[in-house]
Amino acid sequence: MNLTLKIWRQKGPQEKGKMVDYKVSDISEHMSFLEMMDVLNEQLVNSGEEPVAFDHDCREGICGMCSLHINGEAHGPDRGITTCQLHMRMFKDGETITIEPWRAKAFPVIKDLVVDRTAFERIQQAGGYISVNTSGNTQDANAIPISKHAADEAMDAAACIGCGACVASCKNSSAMLFVGAKVSQFALLPQGQVEAVDRVKNMVAQMDLEGFGNCTNTGACEVECPKEISLENIARMNRELVKASLIKF
Ligand code: SF4
Ligand code: FES
After folding, report:
1. pLDDT (tens digit, 9 = 90+) per residue, 179-220?
2. Domains of the chain, CATH where assigned
3. CB 231 less than 6 A from any atom of ligand 1
4. Residue to mutate, 32, 36, 38, 58, ligand 2, most ligand atoms under 8 Å from C-beta
C-alpha cells in the first residue's frame, strides 16, 4: 500500500504544533500500525529528519502506552483493540490517514504524539490499591469465598490498561470510565471493602483536581475502549460514592 500520513508534529509542551504530510510506500497489509510508523521513522532518520515521537512498549495490547488518535478515533477504526493491535489491512491503498495525540487538558502534549498521562497515576495513587500485610501471613486467596458473578465482573473491570482512550473519545474529556473500572475492581471483592469509603472519595476528588470533565452519558468511552470496559462501572462508582458520602463526610 502507498499512503499519505497527516501527523501532528510538536517540538515540545510549550511549542505550537501543526499537521505535517508524509508519504510511505510498500506498506504490507499484515503490518501493525506501529510497524508502519517504524517504517516512516526509518525513512525520516535516513533523510536526516527528526523521527515522529510516539508512545509504545509491549506492542501486544497490555501496557496501554500506544495512545494514537487515528482518523478521528482513539486507537483507530477497529473495535476492542489498542493501536499496536491495529493492522494495516483496515486501511486502503492510496488512503490519507490522520494521526494525532490524545486531546485533553489533563493529558498535555509532551512531544508530537506523546502525551503526559501521569494524571492517571496520581488518581491511582489516591486509592487504587489495597493494603495487605505481606509479611508471610497473607490469607490464601482461595480461602475467601467470592461469587462467580462478582469475580467475573471484577476481572472485567481489572482489564482496564489505563490507556486513556476513554478520555480522548469523550467530548467532556471525562475519566469516569477509567476511574469507574479502578473503583469497581475493588468494590466487587471482599479485599476491597476495608478502604472502600476513602478509595472512591479520594480517587474521584483527584480526578476532579486533575481537570477531567464530567460524564454526560454519551457512551463514546465504552465504544472506543480497547478492553470493552462497560459503562456499568461508572454507575457502580457513582453508587459507591453516594454510599461513601452517607457513611463518612
Ligand atoms: S477504561 Fe478503557 S479506554 Fe479507559 S483507560 Fe481503561 S482501558 Fe483505556
Ligand atoms: S504498546 Fe502496549 S498496549 Fe499497545
Report:
1. 999 999 999 999 999 999 999 999 999 999 999 999 999 999
2. 3-111 (3.10.20.30), 117-132+143-247 (1.10.1060.10)
3. no
4. 58
CA 229–ligand 1 middle distance (angstroms): 7
Residue 227 alpha carbon, nearest atom of ligand 1:
7
- Residue 228 alpha carbon, nearest atom of ligand 1: 2
How far is residue 25 from each of residues 22, 80, 224, 230, measured CA to CA in Å? 10, 28, 29, 39
Strands, sheet with 18-24, edge to edge from the N-terminal-most edge strand: 18-24, 3-9, 96-100, 69-70, 73-74
pTM score: 0.95
| Residues in contact with ligand 2 (CB, 6 Å cut-off) | 56-59, 61-66, 82-84
Element (H, E) at 110: strand 109-111
Phi, psi (degrees; rounded to nearest 5) at 141 = -55, -35
45-56 pLDDT, tens digit per residue, is 999 999 999 999
